[in-house]
Amino acid sequence: MRRKLALAVSILALAIAGSPAVSYGQDAGAGDTATQTQTGTDTNSNTQTATDTATTTQSNTTGAEGSTSGDRSNNGEAEQANEAETEAAAENGNETEQGQEQEQSAGSGDTEGAGSGDDVTQDQTGSNTNTNSQTSTGTADTTQTNDNTSGSGTTEGGSDRSNNGDVEQSNDADTSAEAENGNETEQSNEQEQSAGGGDTEGAGAGDDVTQDQTGSNTNGSTQTSTSTGTTDQTNTNGSGSGSTGDRSENGDVEQTNEADTSAEAENGNETEQSNEQEQSAGGGDTEGAGAGDDVTQTQTGSNSNESSQTSTSTGTTTQDNTNTGSGSDGDRSNNGDAEQSNDADTSAEAENGNETEQSNEQEQSAGGGDTEGNGAGDDVIQDQTGSNTNSNSQTSDSTGTTDQTNTNGGEGGGGSGDRSNNGDVEQSNEADTEASAENGNETEQSNEQEQSAGGGDTEGAGAGDIVDQSQSGTNTNSNSQTSTSTATTTQSNDNGGTGGGTIDCDRCFNGDVEQSNEADTSAESENGNETEQGNEQSQSAGGGDTEGAGSGDDVTQTQSGSNTNSNSQTSSSTATTTQSNSYIPPGVTIICRRCFNGDVTQSNEASTSAKSSNKNTTEQSNDQDQSAGQAEEEHGHEGNGNGHSSEPPVVTMIVVNHYITSPAPVAKSSTSAPKKSAKCKCAKKTKKTKKSRKAKKRTKVKGLVKCVRKNC
């Protein structure tokens, strides 16, 4: 009995004293010491200015200053025509790509010896900065003039039977101004760090790793585009003081103006910014009291973008037809048909488009290998910060103006000659005036963050991982949009002069008169904004099996996700159409007999529309996932005060318990044997505790120790 009890005490003492140190032939404190630093900086500044001006001036004139006074003169046909295509285009285009790719690796070999492991410090900094300024200006002007008999007219007394030829005057113009800016910017930082990861063995062994990554992208863009298209057309027949000759100016008169005027200003900007960061440290198996990896990981990703866009377009068309300047006093004159027409297509368009994409992708992993030894485990601190900031300002302004005038009879109310001005008169204006201002913005911001630490199995008193994880994702967006469009159409038909004066004649102004105005005037302002912001965060720590008194993982996890969006939209559109037909203008005194007997037809047709709209779509999301300590209860978890058990820690005495339950030797005499009741009582206590070990184990173990001492 004493021999077996002595053996039990020896085994117990060996268990308490721990295992003797073992040497594998490597030095204490072995491992690599590495310090790595990488810095990459790209800076770009771009300024572009484009200016284009196109001007066309056309003029046709017959009958110089101080025309002749001879009779029966200037009776040939007069045909005057101008045709022009005027175009101005100013354009800026810029494309910028900036990228930093950084990679660091250190250690990772196996080390053996007390305090062995790699000491690694890694630092990466990537910075991209871009500034872009673009200005484009396009100006196109077309001026066309046709003038027949432009002098002071005939002398006193007039020229009889003169200026009777047909007159045809026409202007045709295509005027366009275009200003455009285009910018595309791509900025990226790709950073990767890895350190340690080899197996380490020895008291206090493990890797000491500090990793730091910083990625920064900054972009600023300013765009200004201005376009102006102007068309001015004039047809004049008899622009002087007129003619006083009899039987004169009886030819047909045809005057036409046709114009296509367009102004377009456009800005386009596209920005893409990204930071991809990856860190890994440790992860190898460690063995020895206090062994494990000490890892500190920091990642910072920042994207900042600011965009300002201004577009202004102005399209203007002016058309004027005038027949007989100040009228005529000659008899039997101005009896030809007069046809006057204006046709204009005027458009002004201002547009801004901006698209921004910002992203931070961050991944950290540390430890995770198995650790063995009292107090062993990984100490990990992980921190991730992702920030996206975007500011956008857009202003678009468009103005489309059309002004059309037809005048038959000139200033002062026409003429006073008998049997005159009896021809048919046809006057028409047709206009399509359009102003459009549009702003479009699309912003996408995202932070994807992933952290993992520990998770390996740990064995030993007080063993386990200590993990502190922090994630912060911030998205901030500000958008301001202003669009203004103005479309104006003015149409006027005047027969019998422009007002004032006196009409004193017999048998005059008996022709048919047809006057018409047709206009399509539209102004449209539109703002569109689409914003998508998202933070996706995942944290995992611990989860491995733990065995040993007081063992388990200590985990602190913090996640912060923030999305902020501010949007301001203002749209204004104004469309105006003014139409007038005048058979006899106001303020004219009429003294006549058998006059103004022709048919009169006057018509106005207009389609006027103004449309303003604001559209905004915002999508914000935070997706957060945390997990810590998910190991199954096995490998002696129950009752050891480790990992996930709620029981208090106890001293394990399995070796002592084993020898107490062994049968005692047969006694030689009844006097020398111990009391059977005491021995049986102890044995029964051992059997009874099998079902209730979890709840009362501390009390039962103390009882067994007392029983052993009593029998000894």
Summed over residues and divided by their number, the pLDDT gives a mean of: 81
Class inferred from helices and paired strands: mainly beta
Shape: rod-shaped
**Strand adjacency order, main sheet:** 1-4-7-10-13-16-20
Work out the number of β strands: 22
Quick one: biggest sheet?
Answer: 7 strands, parallel
The share of residues in extended strands comes to: over 45%
SSE string, helix = H, strand = E?
HEEEEEEEEEEEEEEEEEEEEEEHHH
What share of residues is helical?
under 10%
How many helical elements?
A: 4
Our Rg estimate from Cα atoms comes to 49 Å
Looking at how many chains there are and whether they match, the oligomeric state comes to: single chain
- State the end-to-end distance: 9 Å
- Poorly predicted runs are 1-25, 150-157, 632-712
Quick description:
The chain is mainly beta. It is built from four helices and 22 strands.
Please supply descriptive tags for the structure shown above.
disordered C terminus; 4 helices; mainly beta; disordered N terminus; 8% helix; 7-stranded parallel sheet; 712 residues
Please characterize this protein's 3D structure.
With 712 residues, the protein is mainly β. 8% of the residues lie in helices and 61% in strands. The protein contains four helices and 22 strands. It has a seven-stranded parallel β-sheet, with no helix packed on it. The chain has a seven-stranded parallel β-sheet with strand order 2-5-8-11-14-18-22, with no helix packed on it. A six-stranded parallel β-sheet has the order 3-6-9-12-15-19, with no helix packed on it. Helix 3 packs antiparallel against helix 4. The longest helix is centred in the last third of the chain and has 19 residues, at 693-711. It starts with a helix and ends with a helix. 54% of the residues are buried. The model is unreliable at 1-25, 150-157 and 632-712 (pLDDT under 50).
